[in-house]
Amino acid sequence: MDYINSVTVVADSATLADVLATAIAVSSKSRREKIMKTYPKVKVYLS
Questions:
Q1: Which long-range contacts (CB under 8 A, 24 or more apart) does 35-42 make?
Q2: pTM, rounded to two decimals
């Protein structure tokens, strides 16, 4: 998926979820994958 409409992140803290959602929303596909691998306990939903 190259273009995403929304990002939902479920994390232990709201701050981490907000930071990751923003980073994932503006990143390329390869960078998104790296970010998600860095935080394996965080759930990320893309649409």
A1: 39/11, 41/11, 41/12, 42/9, 42/10, 42/11, 42/16, 42/17
A2: 0.89
